[in-house]
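User: Please look over both lines:
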Amino acid sequence: MPLREPISAEDAARHERILERLLSAATSMTGICVGLLGAVNAFARSQNTETFADDVLAMNAMLFLVCCYLIVWGLRSNSRQLTARLLRIVEYTFLGAMSLLVLIGFFVVYSVL
């Protein structure tokens, strides 16, 4: 098993700055998903229809919430290696959730028009 190179203090500080920015964005996106979920749900009820978007929005909000938990864990960790691993996981999860949100947006606009 190869030894991993230690993470420098400069890289660790950069990881923390990235995590702090992502925490702000992830909490905002969680709120946006919950707000959109309420709006889509209200629209669906007024039309007496069920939509696929509300289920996906709920899952998307959960993905952003998972990002928040992982970010806080990374910021509270004393291990630079763990913080770097959590940052990588958060980046991929956040990117996936944002991509899913874009797809949901297209779906909602298409279904409304």
